[in-house]
Each structure stands twice: as structure tokens, then as C-alpha cells.
Amino acid sequence: MLVPGDIILPFNTYVQSNIDLTVKDGAITKIEGGFEAEYLREYMKDFNDKNAYTISHLGWGLQPKARWTALGMNDKSRTFGMEARAFYGNFLFSTGPTAGKPTPCHLDIPMRNCNFFIDNEPMVLAGDVIPHDQKIARSA
Fold it and tell me: pLDDT grade, residue 140 (50/70/90)?
């Protein structure tokens, strides 16, 4: 679920109300919520390409100097949202092109205050990056 404060790129906007995404077999199958969900649904539908809904990559922000608030301070038509993609502790959820599944529709969605695990190892907990040495200590 996308919640207020999460960011949708390339829209260069902060989410204002909840957007519920259903993901099945590596692709978004349903987008529910209010106006913003409708807008997102129509945007992706307009590409007329099932690959637009594919999950392309996941990641997390590691840059402590990047600011979550930067998008609100800049001319949105002149930014690519790099600070939004990199701010410390975000979980980046992306859709669109993957190997063998090209599409011109690509979304990057940095989400705040998430928990993110890889192979049951925490990478981010409540928006805080878990340092490598703490991961080693947990598995010992």
C-alpha cells in the first residue's frame, strides 16, 4: 500500500491518500483507492502494454544527504527526482522494463518507513537502514 508521503516518479508528486496495489506473480494486478489510484491506473492503462505492470526492480535508499523533502522544494518540471530515489531509508519499488519485457512505462516509487528484507535478512526496518555489521551479528 502506498501511503501519504510516498512518492510516485515520474509524476514527481507525493502521495496524498492511500493507494492499494495488488501484486501477483511479479506484476501489479489491481490498483485501488481514490483519485490518485484512478490517475495511476489510467496512466498505466494508456500504454496498452501488459509489461507496464511488471515489477522491474527493488532497492533501498542509502544517501543520508539526499532529502525526502527535496521534491517539494524544486521546480518539478526540472527534476528527475534523484534525491527522492536515494534518500536514506526509503524502499524503492519500481515497475516497467525488465530483461526480455521492454515497455516505455516505468515508475519509481520511493516509500517511507517500510520494512524490507532479502532472504529473511533486514535491509531496512521502519525506514532505518540496517548496517552490514548488524546483519552479520544477527546471523552469528
Answer: very low
Contact 16, 119 (CB under 8 A): no
CA–CA distance, 63 with 87 (Å, rounded to integer): 5
Burial of 97 (0-12, 13-18, 19+ CB in 10 A): middle
Short-list 84, 83, 105, 85, CA closest to 95: 105
Helices (H), 63-123: 70-73, 82-86
Mean pLDDT of 31-49: 98
Tell me if 94 sits within 8 A of 58, measured CB to CB. Answer: yes
The pTM is what? 0.89
